[in-house]
Design a protein that fits this description.
By secondary structure, this protein is mostly helical. The chain contains 5 helices and no strands.
């Protein structure tokens, strides 16, 4: 504002301008104090760190970020391990059901037939082969899943996953 504009203002308007200027001054003083405090905090951090490299690492929170990443990694490993265990249990149950069902069907099919012992002996190898083939495929899947689960367990053990329940 120019001097002429200020002279035209009423006394109440001048007081309002003065109050507004005082509030702005107080706000700037507060901001300066905060900035001084932050500068002091950084200076103390630099003095405590012992070197510029250590101070910059502490200020930037690199150590905390690394710790958080490690914790997240362990949580993911635990979650995956739990999923693998559930999958193995489910596959075992499915295999057991399939085997039981196959046995029941075989018994139902074979019992009503009236054949001579020689006819049964001739059909026995083919029946054994068919009965053994179905559960073997399911058992192979279970073995592969369990092997993967054991490898995951070993990895957790080698990574220092203390306290990790699998």
């Amino acid at each position: 504002m120019t001097d002429q504009e200020l002279k035209k203002l009423r006394r109440s308007d001048l007081l309002e301008l003065l109050i507004a200027q005082e509030k702005e001054n107080e706000q700037l003083r507060s901001q300066i104090a905060q900035l001084k405090q932050r500068l002091e905090d950084r200076t103390i951090a630099l003095e405590q760190a012992g070197s510029i490299a250590e101070a910059s690492l502490q200020i930037n929170g690199v150590f905390q970020a690394a710790q958080d990443a490690a914790a997240q990694y362990l949580e993911n490993i635990q979650r995956l391990s739990g999923q693998q265990e559930k999958s193995c249990r489910r596959m075992e149950e499915e295999t057991s059901k399939t085997t039981d069902q196959g046995m029941t069907e075989t018994q139902e099919t074979c019992c009503p037939m009236e054949k001579s012992p020689q006819e049964y002996q001739e059909q026995l190898p083919a029946a054994h082969e068919e009965t053994d083939r179905c559960p073997t495929m399911d058992q192979q899947r279970i073995v592969v899943s369990c092997t993967a689960h054991e490898k995951l367990r070993k990895i957790l053990g080698n990574r220092g996953g203390k306290g990790v329940e699998v």
